[in-house]
Design goal:
Layout (H helix, E strand, L loop, with lengths): L24 H7 L3 H18 L1 H4 L3 H19 L6 H13 L4 H14 L7 H22 L5 H21 L1 H6 L7 H6 L10 H4 L2 H14 L3 H4 L5 H19 L13 H13 L3
Length: 281
């Protein structure tokens, strides 16, 4: 697709960029990463951002799959040393410098494709896997960039990324429901006499808090001290701390996300990041 090979100059993918804008949780996370890694981590975040944005930018599933396939092939080309997109040209040296595996990138693409095709998780384990294929895969790549290779540590990074992805799903569930893309288990919807189709209508979306309170409990159960204390990079721990606080903010607001987006102020995020940076895991 010729339209995909144009884009911002390479420097515009570095930190901070459109995936890590000033004031965001991603921004404060990377602000506490080692200076020499910030640009590399921002490039990884930008790559995920480009792929994740396809369902938001393209409403037609067929066209969305074509654009996603272009990125899948571009990923293959980047690992083969033949990138075309400006972002891929910046990503290539990051892959080489840190010896990054291709599997986590493929996981992210696969998860976006599943969402385009409306392949919703059937069980809690499936939902865990979906979240870990998304932000969990990015967290694994971040851990690799910090020189971590222990399988247990990388799995912990994935699980923490999955926790953060669950919190984002809760925060964005009002918007996702309007677009027919909310990720709730059919069994959980059935208990309340709801369906994904029904959630597309305003009178049913008002019942989202009934779904989100137990969803928050399940998300909290995924956040364990053993994962947080595995010597993971501070930037991952900062992101988790901010998202854990966001989850409590959502709960305090009664999960009233039907027509509003609830978030933390930049000052609050900075405070949480600073506190986590001082903590010894």
């Amino acid at each position: 697709m010729a339209g995909e090979i144009t884009g911002p100059a390479p420097d515009e993918w570095r930190f901070p960029n459109q995936a890590t804008p000033v004031g965001s949780s991603a921004y404060y996370s990377l602000r506490f990463a080692p200076r020499e890694l910030r640009d590399d981590l921002a490039v990884l975040s930008a790559w995920r951002y480009q792929v994740r944005a396809i369902p938001d930018r393209v409403s037609d599933p067929g066209l969305a799959r074509i654009k996603l396939q272009w990125w899948r092939e571009e990923l293959e080309g980047t690992f083969a040393g033949t990138p075309h997109h400006p972002l891929s040209r910046v990503l290539g040296p990051v892959l080489e410098q840190h010896g990054l595996p291709q599997a986590p990138f493929t996981d992210i693409v696969d998860q976006v494709e599943a969402e385009i095709l409306c392949r919703r998780p059937g069980t809690e384990a499936d939902l865990d896997a979906a979240c870990e294929r998304d932000l969990g895969a990015l967290f694994e790549l971040i851990a690799h960039c910090h020189g971590l290779s222990d399988a247990d540590v990388l799995r912990a990074a994935r699980r923490l990324g999955g926790f953060c992805a669950r919190v984002y799903l809760i925060r964005d569930s009002g918007v996702l429901a309007r677009r027919g893309r909310a990720l709730f288990l059919s069994e959980q919807l059935g208990v309340l006499g709801l369906s994904h189709v029904a959630l597309g209508r305003r009178e049913y979306r008002d019942r989202l808090p009934e779904l989100l309170a137990p969803a928050a409990d399940r998300a909290r159960s995924k956040l364990t001290a053993s994962d947080l204390n595995r010597g993971l990079p501070v930037c991952i721990r900062v992101r988790v701390r901010i998202l854990a606080s966001l989850l409590e903010e959502l709960a305090g607001a009664g999960f009233a996300v039907t027509d509003q987006r609830i978030g933390l102020t930049p000052l609050r995020k900075l405070w949480l990041a600073w506190r986590e940076n001082r903590r010894t895991p």
